[in-house]
Amino acid sequence: MTEQKALSKSLRVAVLAAAASTGFAAQADEGMWMPSQLPGIAGQLRQAGFQGDPASLADLTRPPMSAVVSLGGCTASFVSPRGLVVTNHHCAMGAIQLNSTPQNNLIANGFNAATQAQEVSAGPAARVFVTTAFERITDRILADARGKTGRAYYDVVDAASKAVVAECEQEAGYRCSVANMYYGTDFYLVRQLELKDIRLVYAPPEAIGNYGDEIDNFMWPRHSGDFAFYRAYVGKDGKPAAFSADNVPYQPPAYLTVSTDPVAEGDFAMLAGYPGTTYRHRMAMEFADQVQAGLPWRVDVLGALIGTIESASAASQDAQVRYASQLAGLKNGLKRAQGELDGLRRSEAVRVRREDEAAMLAWLARQPDAAATRADIEAAQALIAQSHASRERDQLFGLMRSQTQLLKSAYQLQRLAAERGKPDPQRERGYQQRDEALIEGALKQVQRRYDPMVEKALLAELLRRYRALPANQRIAEVDAVFGRDAAATQAALDTLYAQTRLGEEAERLRLLAAAPADVAAAADPLLRAAAQLLPAVLREEDADKARGGDLLRLRPAYMRALIGYRQSQGRAVYPDANSTLRVSYGKVSALEPRDGVHYVPLTTVAGILEKHTGQAPFDAPAPLREAIAKGDFGSTADPVLKTQTVDFMTNLDTTGGNSGSPVLDARGRLIGLNFDSNWEAVSASWMYDPRYKRAIHVDVRYLRWLLAKVYPAPHLLREMNLPAE
Amino acid sequence: MTEQKALSKSLRVAVLAAAASTGFAAQADEGMWMPSQLPGIAGQLRQAGFQGDPASLADLTRPPMSAVVSLGGCTASFVSPRGLVVTNHHCAMGAIQLNSTPQNNLIANGFNAATQAQEVSAGPAARVFVTTAFERITDRILADARGKTGRAYYDVVDAASKAVVAECEQEAGYRCSVANMYYGTDFYLVRQLELKDIRLVYAPPEAIGNYGDEIDNFMWPRHSGDFAFYRAYVGKDGKPAAFSADNVPYQPPAYLTVSTDPVAEGDFAMLAGYPGTTYRHRMAMEFADQVQAGLPWRVDVLGALIGTIESASAASQDAQVRYASQLAGLKNGLKRAQGELDGLRRSEAVRVRREDEAAMLAWLARQPDAAATRADIEAAQALIAQSHASRERDQLFGLMRSQTQLLKSAYQLQRLAAERGKPDPQRERGYQQRDEALIEGALKQVQRRYDPMVEKALLAELLRRYRALPANQRIAEVDAVFGRDAAATQAALDTLYAQTRLGEEAERLRLLAAAPADVAAAADPLLRAAAQLLPAVLREEDADKARGGDLLRLRPAYMRALIGYRQSQGRAVYPDANSTLRVSYGKVSALEPRDGVHYVPLTTVAGILEKHTGQAPFDAPAPLREAIAKGDFGSTADPVLKTQTVDFMTNLDTTGGNSGSPVLDARGRLIGLNFDSNWEAVSASWMYDPRYKRAIHVDVRYLRWLLAKVYPAPHLLREMNLPAE
């Protein structure tokens, strides 16, 4: 999977903490470090080969870290004083698509603006976020929380965060967010300049930018030129502004120097970006649950849903087409879940984490505040165990809404009707005014993705599993709507789907526009069913938030114990990833994925020709093939391999959200762009196993060669101070 | 594919030639050398690392070559003075299966005779052939051929060969054959002692001997313990005898010493065995035809037949079961053809061979006898072009008989009826008395592999392609039986299959037992059709033999030119493989199968656990997994890897028939057993590409460890003079 994260922007939150980490030595090459932690691990950074001053990396508002920006889900970086931004091709895909026409298909042909005037808008939603301030605000966020528990704790933290953000965003052109670091231990305010006039400057053809597509996805060896250039523009006053022909290039506070040196196995490398979510510091019981119950259950259910769709649509080509996308999503989910399970087992993650936690608790027992800390940890464990106990029920109930089309529509219509009664800011996320267009789009799409036979079969399978749960797991509303045994369920499904009119697009859109009270009182049986189920959903959400509040209160005890224990070992603790800026360091690394196989960490253009079939996704464009055959690689050729490199692999610590992250050498110069991980590392969100965790990058020498010799953009090379060939 | 070749034993022919090769230097590591050629390439053998005396390898009736025996399709070797034979597990599969019962499944459990008394018969058909004499008899074979052409040349060579064999086999216990070396240039008589009392001594469970099965087939890295032990017995008089409890172990003229030294990348290795067929010295036009027409056509037709079976059986689960085996065979054939095509293109085989041949012809033009030689070569080329011109037609006609069940049965019954009128030795191969049991078995099997819808669809597809051929390719008999257009063909097929009674097993067996004249006159429409087609088959066979006779006469001119040209380059020429004993030498070699991937040439037991799923073919037995976990590898552990190796890879030159071949070290000691090639080398039957040609072997250290620690056979270790652990 490419390392892009579809982040709900309303949730995007980015703060850095000056954590209790100074002077620690960390596990070699593992870690998504907050820049502020880097001076504290300066010794190990230098030992690993970094030749700059670690202190210079500590402040993300100053160069070079201020050159690293977020696109909202992807990472990018400035590479010229005139606002030139480099990121992944797949991160710029929306902009490429937007500017494509049947006459000029930029996806197929690529794009190369000869002058600034020819640069095209990346669209009104495109953003570049430049961090301008950050501040620890733990005391303010938790001021009113002391002494509270459960839902009250949650609500106080939520309200304080919203107030801080609202205050911070009073100045136009800025976007603010609050980040929760170390699971509620600390909170930070991040203020970002929100650049809104973003233009597409250069993109290779998709057959280069996404060479290998789904087949090579997650795989090494890789031969993708996954890069594209944007330019950020601002108003003539230098302030963020929407697209206008009068706008001028933004002058960033810093930009990266592109390296002209070769890259080789063992070289130091570092990477900065906005990794989304990791679970490295979850408790041992959570690791065990994931490996022993969560993932196996997920594999089982996804497999069953795949089988259900396949048999229910076996006789109908039409139904097969309608469910192709949902089926592909389920298969991808199953593959990932199985890969994560295999990886966690291969790494013996449960045993490793359990032994580590036991040692931590033994250390804790010898500390002065052991009893209170231990009590909080045990209280948190009890809450987690509680959520595990109802997980299958909760997830089955969720799948009934997410894996259906008509029932989901009915539920969305009822939920929206209920939420419309509240002031907009108090509405549930996903049901605010700005979400209504999205809901309308989904209600329109139903027609292309729905078949009553298949939807009934999916619900029958989910309800069969639901009925097999222990009696104390039953939900009264679900039983009332779908009955308590197989016969009743089948009868209920037959009636609901025979009588509902939600299969008609006009009817769904009419209900979307109807008054909330009319929706709530509508007689359509599926809408009635949704109205009956709604209280159960709200009850579950409320319980989640109450538990969430208590975990926000209790988990910090565990984190403080872990940080203290690591300190006693002379090691620092990086916070789990939460979409805030992090730095990883390591080296260009080979991989032994399995016995007898060795992956070389650099690929070459020879591999492009080897994979070329003429059919997508292996349809290397003729100009590329001709240039490879010609062998004119100039200054971008590798001095040892005597040919042009394409991608390279490091052991850098990454996860989803790191797409587009600049990969830097020992002197902080740009040597690559991160764009994927290897399949063996799919379990790395839980555990970094140095034997298997690798990150996959475009070599900037490939980028330079394409710009110099294949789809020439000499003006961009000049702008980046790079040799013409 | 495992390197076993199902050889028609009546065709087995083994002779060595003292070829015109003394003093040549060959292409490094390419070559299936006749032992008699080895003294001539002694320099390069020693340079490659061989530490013995090349002269000692020259005579295959003396040690150590006399330790290398044929099982008829597989190679094996003696490893003790008491007739102990080691070969591949897959070569001993027939014997293992024969001795399996529901109560004692040797396939699943393996077999380990604690004493000689417990060794079990490998069955009445099992053989070990020990070469005892060889003699160049070119003059005798060709004595009456001079001046003849075409079919007459063929018949004279055939008659002379049969006479020589009959004379040689007058002494009981011997099997003789004539080998054609360098495409008719030389003929040799091989005399072999035919040992008939072969007993199974030891076999690991299939989950070790065939670990990975079809999934790992042709693949590296590999983790298969593909070995088993036989013992050859003779009568008390020391002469070959059928199984008898009174028989005694055979005392071989030589046996191999099993190495106790480690194996490492770069080590010298050599291999002796009976490779089946290669095409390395075919003409450039044959290479071009194979790549440009033969293989693409094969890929196309096999794909079409696969599609035909799949659609014709889509609605019937029953038909799908009946055609599962034929479908698997076609898919395997398609995969191989595509792999061969891809490999020949990757190696640019046509260009390489064409340039080499052009250089040879340029050299030839400067030789005294150039004109006559060139005339013969051109005559041969014309004949080959002729056979290429009708290849599609001939192969389609062949597929009509080989890919059907009822039409094939009808044809076999008519052909047998025709052949039964001749004295047995003059009957066509496959229709002699000894073949009748096989035909009966096939006629019985029809019931399990036949569905009229599918067979008609297959014939319709083949006939559709046949009808699309140029008019001059049409066969009158085929047109008469199946009509000249689609409608006529469909009507003919409908009538034939509606009215035939050959779908009934009793009817087929009745016809098998019936008098030839009654079969020839039978009214069954499918039998009538076969009778109508028979003259066309006979005509085609006759034309093949006539062309074969002329090529036998003309190809030697090409071979003499090639040998002379190579000699001028200081290089020797090994004859193309023809199931006679050959020796390859090379080294333990890594492989770069594609850009970014490096295959390490030794695998370890860690890979067994990595692949283990608990489900066949990756269901490593518990005793093996426990022994691996225990890590007690004793003297068989690799000193560098610090663990137990399993398989290793060399660049030795092999092909089908080399299964079970002993792999020897620089001092001639047994270090492995050959059992497969890598996928990248599937085109090696035409061209040895040193970048991709590898052979895959069981490491004898794995064998020793299994015998010492996992399924102990301390008596066998003692018998082979090996340490107990």
From TrEMBL, chains A, B:
The UniProt record lists the keyword Repeat: no
SUPFAM superfamilies from the UniProt entry: Trypsin-like serine proteases
GO biological process: peptide catabolic process; proteolysis
Lineage: Bacteria, Pseudomonadati, Pseudomonadota, Gammaproteobacteria, Lysobacterales
Entry keywords, A to Z: Aminopeptidase, Hydrolase, Protease, Serine protease, Signal
EC number, UniProt record: 3.4.14.-
Signal peptide per UniProt: 1-28
Regions that span the bilayer: none
GO MF entry, a single one: serine-type aminopeptidase activity
Keyword Protease appears in the UniProt entry: yes
InterPro entries: Pep_S46, Peptidase_S1_PA, Peptidase_S1_PA_chymotrypsin
Family: Belongs to the peptidase S46 family.
Name this protein carries in UniProt: Dipeptidyl-peptidase
Function per UniProt: Catalyzes the removal of dipeptides from the N-terminus of oligopeptides.
Xref: Pfam families: Peptidase_S46
